[in-house]
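Progress narrative, work stream C.
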Amino acid sequence: MRIPRLSFLIAAAMLAVFVLNFGSEHLRPVFGSIYYARKLSKPTRGSSNARRAVRGHFGTTDDELLNDGSAPNSKAAGGIMPNSLLSKSLHLLSGGKYEDVEGVEAVWQAPPTGVLRRAVVFIAHGCNHGAIDWWPPSPSCPQCIGLPEELNVTLHCLLRGYAVVAVSSAARRGSRCWQSVFGGGSEPWDYSQGSSPVDWMRVRRVLDVVLPREGLSSLPLFALGASSGGAFVLGLPLVMPGRFSGLGVQIMGAPLGLLQRYRMMNQSAPWPPTLFVHMPRDTNMARLVAENIRELQEGGVRTREILVQPQPLTPLYLTQRCAPEVDEHTSRELYDILKAADYLDARGYLRFNPRSQHAGGWRGILKEAGLAGLERLRLQPDASPIAEELNLLYAGHELCSETTTDMLEWFEGAVVS
């Protein structure tokens, strides 16, 4: 019977979101898993020509997760050396410029001098985040807080010749989610702050001001969003048809019937090529993405799928990703503490969701063990580099920067063809 089956899917989606996010003080909303799962009728695998790739380690999914193979640290994180491309290149991100564009918070940066300008990428953050996460503090952006995955995305975009424009959602209190074009995705507006804004109009205004002023209007424009920002990005073609040359969507899907809705609006521009990056550990999200890919491909839209699997923590990983806040000594000591506490398995994989408070949570373990220099580390949820990286290693629901080059290469190929 259909009704019981739908009820079961909704319950399963809600349980998955709770388990994957339990322990966050804000319980980061993953409304796509909850809101859209009830629209699914049965799981599908999507079309076979949606190129699937696995990121996070050298081995394939079968080698790593089924055959108990080793999982050396990725080259993107630094391999076996304490210094990574990110830790050695942070100075290149000092050019992030903070702006209030007619009441809209934005941070942007053009590619370094001498790098050919290829395109522009608009970035939409996830819930409990903002545009200031994508650059480190600097004289031109003293408000910036610089989280590692966001920094790494920005760095790889700039080095490849992409100007980066990040915009904050209107909701700067509470969840800070985006107002989805599909409805929902943010808490009720606080009218003490003024009349309710429309997020997509705010983004359009920033692009209309910054791009022509900086001589970037003639370049292809792409969009990247994660979680709530991913849902927001998937809605942009409906309200700005023909403006974006490609979409990158991380850990999120769209309501079923997306392309049908777009074409019912009599949009003459084709739907842009769309790349999905998600974590199969969230099975409900994986099913939703499969449905999205199937629908888009049946409608003649180019798609690609990249899977992000769990990765092991290594002694050097956190300094490779979180330097200079986490130095080599702290990274090694932190690893030893978590290993001794049985928080990691024999291969270094996290045994527990880092958002949970199992055994007091990883923060409690570090405090009890007396990690040297703990007081100088940012540990608060959604503002902690260590928390973000542990979430990524667990691969339940987190932004992933290791797919950035794949995404940009695919965008470029899609535009040329």
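Work stream C, second folded protein:
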Amino acid sequence: MTSPTGEKTAAERRASRRGSERRPSIDPWRLVPMDKSEHIGGEDIFNIVFVGAGNIMFGSPEGPWNHSFRLEHKLGPRMKVVALIDPAVDRAKETLKKKCNSFVVSAYKDTRVCKTLDEFRETMTAKETPKAFIVGSPPMFRGTLKSGRDVEAQILKHFPGVALFIEKPVATGPVEEIKEGYEIAKMISDSNTVCSVGYMLRYLKATQQMKKIIEDNNLTVMATIARYANAYDSILKPDWWDKAKSAGPVIEQGTHFCDLSRYFGGDVDMSTVMAHSLEWHENAGRLSKIPIDENTIPPENRIPRVTSATWKYESGAVGSFTHLTALQGYNYSCELEVYADGYCLRLVDPYQSPILYVRKPGDDHEAVHRFADDDPFFSEVSHWIDVIEDIEEDPDSATILSSYEDAVKSYELTWAIRLASERSAKAKAAASAGAAMKEVGAA
């Protein structure tokens, strides 16, 4: 409730800044690079629990992700990782050993490795009470209400009021479980829990500059066109190539650009989603440098090489997305175009060196905006921490751009695309089989 003086309470301030539906953007110049920011003030300990000891949490040569590194900078000496939860205990201990042999030893010297959340809960001391959970375990093990895959619900039950940061996608289970994701979203909202989902491309300066142009000029988005082409010979995880384990490239990998499309276009009318795919067995889908033995994967679980989808937003605007497993090398090729009356906003290479091309009324040439030293991974955790800490000096600067419910909507879109492409592939196969039978009959 509002205080007697008419000022907002801490809970009201956090609520007003929590979701993208309430405050959909951040002034791009408030997104400060990590090397130009100072760790947050205060002297009290900030206890964190890490769920998952993998690459997203501690980094890898494959990409820039590394939540622990950003949190160490944001929280400084206040940060204490009270537990690292991962069933792969030996790997977790080896990771902790490296941290304890570094300059951030104070954050990890007392960290306990636990196989499960229950183990931590049952052995936790009052001193270890967490202020936040970072959930970076594989998505196939979370995002549902089923035992063993319900870490979010368990945290909400046993640690009420403790903030959550959850990696995307929110899940990669069967499509029937999407409704459970919405139930988790309601639990988070009803409990007034601070929660952010890691769609870091929303926090790019270039993305926020696009939002600013749209808002400043009172524009209505007419269309979004997204393309994501990976460098497949550097994708070494066998599970990624198996739809039964990764849910397929659109859900596991294309989720970023489906989410970014929704960030500009709004909610999608799921009944309008249509898609086609280039399958592994078709002539055009034969790849020359697959880094794993695809013969070990059942044919029905092998991933498509290309998926191309279109849909209508509830606003009436049109969206499209194409995912390609086609390039070789290291760098991916990714772009997003957003169209409005008189405007084209084109975001290029958001993962490596984001460039924004802007065409506007009165000028047929594109203005080029470059954003050096931008780190959306740091921006997303920095804003999440500021909301938790209820930074009051400048309330507009701390905003969570992806709520759990919003993330579930992006997840639902990726599943709709996969299912639509599979329907069209089956229809084509049935038509081809029918044509072949007719030829045999005619002979």
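The first helix runs from residue 10 to 18. No further action is required on this item.
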